Amino acid sequence: LRPAMYIGHVNTKGFMEMLKGIISSAITSTEANSISIKLEDNLSGKLRLNNLKNESENSWRQIQAGPINSHLMEVFVLNALSKNFSISFLDANYEKVGGETFQEGVLVFDQGEVKIEYSFIEVKFQLDEIIWGADFTWNHTYITHHLREFAFLHRQTKFEVKYREENEDCR
């Protein structure tokens, strides 16, 4: 089982709290200076943490077994609550240097256990309808409002949020 108890609420508020945890940890532990969030219609999205100064093991198992990089803790939760999930580590030239793919929290693709240096983390996810419920939809107004407040508190970091509403691209 992949319980939703990790975030307290399986709704937009719970998702937002989890997202703010990921962003806050990324800002404080990796000095991310730019964060991009894209929300898609089918409860999927993409989160990109840019210009990181970090080194890590490229293995979910190694990361879980060893001391955890604090910016990855909340990412574990997002993985547990997603139907499909992938994490990619990219170098300064946007070349993929590592990554793993999961389905319903289970590892399905692993690039091996090697130490990597990366500048970007890209997380792609599709929330699990069984956990979040068939009626769950993105509340773009709520999410962008809270991200604007969060961005105000972290002025050194650039935030970009993209989504579609009524067949129109929004930022």
Structure notes:
It is built from five helices and ten strands. Residues 62-66 have low confidence and may be disordered. α1 (12-30) runs antiparallel to α3 (70-80) and α1 runs parallel beside α5 (140-153). Helices cover 32% and strands 36% of the residues. It has 171 residues and is an alpha+beta fold. The chain has an eight-stranded mixed beta sheet with strand order 6-5-4-8-2-1-9-10.
Break the fold down into its secondary structure elements and pairings.
Blueprint: H1 12-30, E1 34-39, E2 44-50, E3 54-57, H2 60-65, H3 70-80, E4 82-90, E5 96-103, E6 106-110, E7 115-118, E8 120-127, H4 129-132, H5 140-153, E9 158-165, E10 168-170
Parallel strand pairs: 1-9
Antiparallel strand pairs: 1-2, 2-8, 3-7, 4-5, 4-8, 5-6, 9-10
Helix pairs in contact: 1-3, 1-5
What attributes characterize this protein structure?
single chain; 171 residues; alpha+beta; two-stranded antiparallel ribbon; 5 helices; globular
Roughly what percent helix? 25-40%
Q: From the alpha carbons, calculate the radius of gyration and give it in angstroms.
A: 15 Å
Number of DSSP strand runs: 10
Poorly predicted ranges (pLDDT <50, ≥5 residues)? 62-66
Beta-strand content bin: 35-45%
Largest sheet strand order: 6-5-4-8-2-1-9-10
The main sheet comes to: 8 strands, mixed
Distance between the termini: 36 Å
Order of helices and strands: HEEEHHEEEEEHHEE
Overall morphology: globular
